[in-house]
Amino acid sequence: MRIILLGPPGSGKGTQAQLLVQRYGIVQLSTGEMLRAAVAAGTPVGLKAKEIMASGGLVPDDVVVGIISDRIDQPDAKNGFILDGFPRTVPQAEALDELLKHKHLKLDAVIELRVNESALLNRVETRVAQMRERGEEVRLDDTPEVLTKRLASYRNQTEPLIHYYSERRKLSTIDGMMAIDEVTRAIHRQLLALGAVEPKTHGKTRARSAAKAAPARKAKTAKKSAKTPVKAAKKAAKSKKAAKKATKAGKRIVKKAAKKVGKKKAAKKTARKAVKKGAKKAAKKVTKRRAKR
Ligand code: AMP
């Protein structure tokens, strides 16, 4: 994937570029960083650029185009790159088109970070304060005066690129005033819509949410299986109760039957007694009658 991040100084291009590098495994090609390194190393390019940079002007097109052309040829740029701070003028954009054509490479998208200019000064002041707190060296061009000049050069020389790339249907504009992660998400959505990134980068998110969901699923299953013994125990208790009930009922029936049997036995006994009594009486009567004769 090859993209350009476009926006005035302080719009968050550098921050977003670093986040995109982590996400997509591509390299960030920042002409500002390369020029600062050249200045620090005292190379011929550095010597040429030093004064111009310190005053907030633009380094000549041929210098930056040469730097970028060499950098794109490096093996780590084969996977793709994010251009941060380049191109800054229409001639630089035309030179980039030419060199990409020559290298048989395609530009996927140009992302413009649109910001409220009045907020930029605040942002740069905050950035400087934070760098000082961390004990980092502060850029010479991060002063309110130089920033005003850099903003003017953005408006005059770089803003025409918005028209240049929108004519070529490459431009996507994103609200750079949102929170950092919201901007990153918006860029990702845009790159997905353009087909510049595979939805599999989404997969990471899905895999992450699936991993997040897994414990919840496990807990649910555990809860369910935990419920099962409870259910079984309840069932067992119920059947025990039923068995007890059945036993009680059985006992009652047996008792009743026994009672009946007992009653029958008693009746038989009574009947037998009665028969005996009756027979005795009859025998007595017969004896009496015989004695009379
Ligand atoms: P940056 O870090 O992108 O803000 O760049 C810092 C300074 O480097 C700018 O103010 C310019 O002086 C110089 N510079 C960086 N990129 C370019 C470019 N594409 N064309 C000309 N000058 C540049």
- The geometry reads as rod-shaped
Q: Provide the CATH top-level class of the domain at 2-26 and 79-199.
A: Alpha Beta
Bound molecules: adenosine monophosphate
Largest sheet: 5 strands, parallel
Distance between the termini: 147 Å
How much is the average pLDDT?
81
Low-confidence stretches: 201-230
Q: What fraction of the residues are assigned to beta strands by DSSP?
A: 5-15%
Structural class: alpha/beta
CATH-level-2 architecture of the domain at 2-26 and 79-199: 3-Layer(aba) Sandwich
| CATH-defined superfamily of the domain at 2-26 and 79-199 | P-loop containing nucleotide triphosphate hydrolases
The CATH topology of the domain at 2-26 and 79-199 comes to Rossmann fold
Number of strands: 5
What percentage of residues falls in helices of 4 or more residues?
over 70%
Helix segment tally? 10
Order of helices and strands: EHEHHHEHEHHHEHH
Strand arrangement within the widest β-sheet reads 2-3-1-4-5
* Rg over alpha carbons: 48 Å
Explain briefly what this protein structure is.
The protein is α/β, with parallel strands linked by helices.
Would you kindly provide a written description of the structure presented here, covering whatever features stand out?
The protein is an alpha/beta fold and 293 residues long. The termini are far apart. It is 71% helix and 8% strand. A 5-stranded parallel β-sheet has the order 2-3-1-4-5, sandwiched between helices. It has a domain at 2-26 and 79-199: P-loop containing nucleotide triphosphate hydrolases (Rossmann fold, 3-Layer(aba) Sandwich), CATH 3.40.50.300. It is built from 10 helices and 5 strands, in the order βαβαααβαβαααβαα. The chain binds adenosine monophosphate. The site of adenosine monophosphate (AMP) has 17 residues, from helix 2 and helix 3. Adenosine monophosphate binds next to helix 2 and helix 3.
